[in-house]
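Weekly structure sync, notes
Attendees: PL (lead), two postdocs, one rotation student
Agenda item 3: pending single-chain targets
PL asked that the sequence for the first pending target be pasted directly into the notes so everyone works from the same version. It is reproduced below exactly as submitted, 114 residues in total.
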Amino acid sequence: GGIVETLTDLLEKADEQLDDTRKKETQDTHAFEMLKQSLEDEIKYANKELSEAKSGIAAASEKKSGAEGDLQVTSKDLKGDIEALSDLHHECMRKAEDFEAETKSRAEELAAIA
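Predicted structure, written out during the meeting:
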């Protein structure tokens, strides 16, 4: 009977170890599935954020392009306005000089008549 008892004890111990190992495997599998789901959720969220960021960059780039076009038009208009102002200033100065010359000439004529 000693060998049978020893073998029975060994069988019971082996069964207990097998049960413990299966429980641990089940727990580890569950922990792995939870971690896997968590990582998949993080990837999904990160991809969504990446997509939103790319859309934002595209919109900002388009807005920048429009603003640069507006700046070119405005700069060209400003250059034209500065040239027009300069021309107008020169014309006003010439007319002021003509007016002074005419006024001086009239004064001389009036002095000569008087």
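Discussion points:
- The longest helix spans residues 2-113.
- Helices lie at 2-113.
Action: rotation student to compare against the earlier draft before next sync.
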